[in-house]
Amino acid sequence: MKIAVVGSTGLVGQMMLKVLEERDFPVSELLPVASASSVGRTIMFNGRAYPVLSMQEAIDRRPDIALFSAGASVSKEWAQAFADVGCTVIDNSSAWRMTEGIPLIVPEVNGHVLTEKDKIIANPNCSTIQMVVALNPIHRRFGIRRIIVSTYQAVSGTGMKAVKQYKDEANGLQPGAQVYPHPIFANCLPHCDIFLENDYTKEEMKMVYETRKIMQEPDMPVSATAVRVPVISGHSESVNIELTTDADLTGIRTVLAEAPGVKLYDNPGANQYPMPILAEGKDDVWVGRIRRDESRDRCWNLFIVADNLRKGAATNAVQIAEYLIEKKIINAEMSGSLAV
């Protein structure tokens, strides 16, 4: 298949290329796309160098799938132009997530809603993805009445400049660009994205609205607090859920152990619990610290961790593309000649 990666020089774009390689995705022609300042540079993919193209050059080549990770404004401006030439766009930005008629997809949860008519598909927020992968199987078995979540989000979720700020501060250097309003090294900021009129941040409200849409529960009560922490890679979440039916620890662990995309890692006596350092570089959503909330009936606590650049972004986008091919929503000539 002819695959465009829009934003190919960014953190997530680079990870998309890596995941495409690792998963042996059927790429017959790669079209790396980036801003005008990057056009003409080369991108390495499967041992070959590819020139970075402009948006219009990529559109003119009519890709089968375009993986977008270049920001919401770019997606708003260009995604439809790709779709108009028959390309299926999988967009990692916030541009289309809550747009009516645009599917917001985590394949393990709601891939079944995709059809051939869906030419723009939204990739959810990183924090939302890992939470719904873990919670949806519990919801389908026991029913979830309410979700309370506090996140501990890595600086790579903000991009390359944030990682540089963290490293500069860690090395005692004056940051070249102050991405955050306060230092992030040896600090925690209860401030992810901008504050809204209700005093929640945009990131927190993303988790509310996206969870409802993905899990097809428009009235699900969700309350979120999002915190940026001095970790480079891997988002963590402390989640409290209230169930509609009774459950026990064995039942919840069994559901999670059998859930696609979940790695159950829950043995406190052996100091085994999810941590960013374990999830980094992996595609599973790690779940542990499962315990009954003794302050309220039918309530449980969980700790959920995932690599925010992989399952939280790049891997989920590639998995959507794989799902489209597997279910023959997009037809691909699956032959050895397609390997780059």
Protein architecture, described:
- With 340 residues, the chain is an alpha/beta fold.
- It folds into 2 domains: 2-95 and 313-338, NAD(P)-binding Rossmann-like Domain (Rossmann fold); 127-308, Dihydrodipicolinate Reductase, domain 2.
- It contains 10 helices and 13 strands.
- It has a 6-stranded mixed beta sheet. A 5-stranded parallel beta sheet has the order 2-1-5-6-7, sandwiched between helices.
When the domains are counted, the total is 2
Helix-strand topology string: EHEEEHEHEHEHEHHEEHEHEEH
Helix percentage: 25-40%
Mean pLDDT level:
95
Counted by DSSP, the helix tally is 10
Major pleated sheet: 6 strands, mixed
The CATH architecture of the largest domain can be given as: 2-Layer Sandwich
Task: Assign an overall shape.
Answer: globular
Oligomer: single chain
CATH superfamily of the largest domain: Dihydrodipicolinate Reductase, domain 2
Give structural attributes:
single chain; 340 residues; alpha/beta; Rossmann fold; Dihydrodipicolinate Reductase, domain 2; 2 domains; 6-stranded mixed β-sheet; 5-stranded parallel β-sheet; 10 helices; methionine biosynthesis; threonine biosynthesis; lysine biosynthesis; NADP binding; oxidoreductase
Would you summarize the structure shown here?
The chain has helices spanning 11-22, 55-60, 72-84, 107-110, 126-142, 160-170, 202-214, 249-258, 276-279, 310-326, and strands at residues 2-6, 29-33, 42-45, 48-51, 65-68, 88-91, 120-122, 144-153, 222-228, 235-243, 262-264, 285-292, 299-306. With 340 residues, the chain is α/β, with parallel strands linked by helices.
